[in-house]
Amino acid sequence: MTDELTPETPDEDEQPIQQRKNGLYPGVSDELAENMTSGWADTELRDLEPIEQAPNAARRRAALSRRFPGERLVIPAGNLKTRSNDTEYDFRASTEFVYLTGDQTDDSVLVLEPRENGEGHDATVHRLPRSDRANGEFWLDGMGELWVGRRNSLTEAATLLGVACADVRELAGALRGATGPVRVVRGHDAGIEEALADKVTAERDEELRVYLSEARLVKDDFEIGELQKAVDSTVRGFEDVVKVLDKAEATSERYIEGTFFLRARVEGNAVGYGSICAAGPHATTLHWVRNSGQVRSGDLLLLDAGVETTSLYTADVTRTLPIDGTYNDLQRKIYDAVYEAQEAGIAAVKPGAAFRDFHDASQRVLAEKLVEWGLVEGPADRVLELGLQRRWTLHGTGHMLGLDVHDCAAARTESYVNGPLEAGMVLTVEPGLYFQADDLTVPEEYRGIGVRIEDDILVTEDGNRNLSAALPRRADEVEAWMAGLTGRQA
Ligand code: GLY
Ligand code: MN
Ligand code: MN
């Protein structure tokens, strides 16, 4: 980075900027220091309304409070991570903090402080305030607003979030001196964890993390609305990709990644996970995110991508598309089998069903197809019992979806994987068949073909709703949809 873009921090004086007085900035004339402290308008925003999800976040905090009465609960958003020198990786606030506040500001920490009367908690979001103009931090500190942009004042943030706000720079010291039971969500803020190191245990902190994962299993109306928005943007992103497949053929899978990312960045926050833009045999690599390969007419493109909304809810959708617009006979045969497996899986999604049911339903269809094609010796029951289909089905058939693509991952087995489905849960149904390029147990023409179809399914009171139904799935519908977007005849 050039000198012009680096704050003019003094060479010799190691004193924190906040502690310096006017006239004591080495390398800065008293006149400039004096000049920089004044002449700035009052920009306090006074007509703010709470964010849409403020009442939802309040209900979530109230439930958390009821679960851990009398205990101090500390939920950090996380800090910026250095990429090199004074550049940082993109920041993404911790899911737990976002869920409980609707806020996404780095360095912030939500604290639920137990009330002295033993009834409930008082919530405070500790965060960086506006930069002080008088002490120099505004322009001499790398985190000063002159460098990183205006922050909300503590008063503004309190209005937006519907939660009291305080200066986070005083929090670690206060926590260090505090007494009483305390739990922290680990893994996001090393400074806060260090301040609490002799007061917390891994086991008790894990109980907090598990609670916050399980609390997210059933989505509220705001969350379902955001997931639908994420899916709708994702559908548009898939359309964008189909329209530029010729350009991808002329370049690489990266053209697909970049095209989808443009949609994600313009309509949402970003992508919810690294886009898998897997052409040809790359489709058999489950997490192909290098996206460095050739895109060839005649091959399939497995595109697994999801827009993350500005509120940080993500879609997770996969389509396996014929790059030239038409599936050949073998591609169609495999695609149709996966489609049939997905149909069976989606039909098994309803309240009261076991979470595992949709996986079992999909796996049965795929096992029957593998037997029918002579790739494994039947009957299907034998294949399923021994798990032999897994050489080609590879992964589970779906997972919860929400703020995280693999949402609720810390939930206990009995509440999630071995639990029942409930109205308000949102999950993916995503069976696949993958024939590795070097798999000598299948006929040569199968090798290098990978197909996955993935949709985002809301469990409703009487069954389910496919949030991603706007994106065609059946082979002939996919071909017609592609022809309509590209002008190429299917
Ligand atoms: N995109 C990751 C998954 O489908 O689970
Ligand atoms: Mn996916
Ligand atoms: Mn998925």
Features:
binds manganese (II) ion, five-stranded mixed sheet, three-stranded antiparallel sheet, globular, Creatine Amidinohydrolase, Chain A, domain 1, 490 residues, 35% helix, 2 domains, binds glycine, Creatine Amidinohydrolase, alpha+beta
Helix-strand makeup class: alpha+beta
Tell me which oligomeric state these chains represent.
single chain
Major beta-sheet overview: 5 strands, mixed
Number of strands: 17
List the strand order in the largest sheet. Answer: 6-5-4-1-7
Please give the domain count: 2
Distance between the termini: 51 Å
Q: For the CA atoms, what is the radius of gyration? A: 26 Å
Measured by DSSP, the beta-strand proportion falls in 5-15%
Structural notes for this entry:
With 490 residues, the chain is of the alpha+beta class. The chain has 2 domains: 54-215, Creatine Amidinohydrolase, Chain A, domain 1, CATH 3.40.350; 221-486, Alpha-Beta Complex (Creatine Amidinohydrolase), CATH 3.90.230. Helix content is 35%, strand content 15%. The chain is built from 17 helices and 17 strands. It has helices at 30-36, 54-67, 95-101, 137-140, 145-148, 154-161, 171-177, 190-196, 202-214, 221-243, 245-250, 253-267, 329-347, 357-372, 380-386, 390-393, 475-486, and strands at 72-76, 82-84, 87-88, 109-114, 121-127, 164-167, 182-184, 270-271, 276-279, 300-305, 307-308, 317-322, 426-429, 432-435, 449-452, 455-460, 463-466. It has a 5-stranded mixed sheet with strand order 6-5-4-1-7, with helices on both faces. A 3-stranded antiparallel sheet has the order 9-10-12, with helices on one face. Strands 13-16-17 form a 3-stranded antiparallel sheet. A hairpin with a 2-residue loop joins strand 16 and strand 17. Helix 10 runs antiparallel to helix 12. It is globular, with a radius of gyration of 26 Å. The two termini are 51 Å apart. One manganese (II) ion (MN) binds at residues 316, 399, 428, 430, 454.
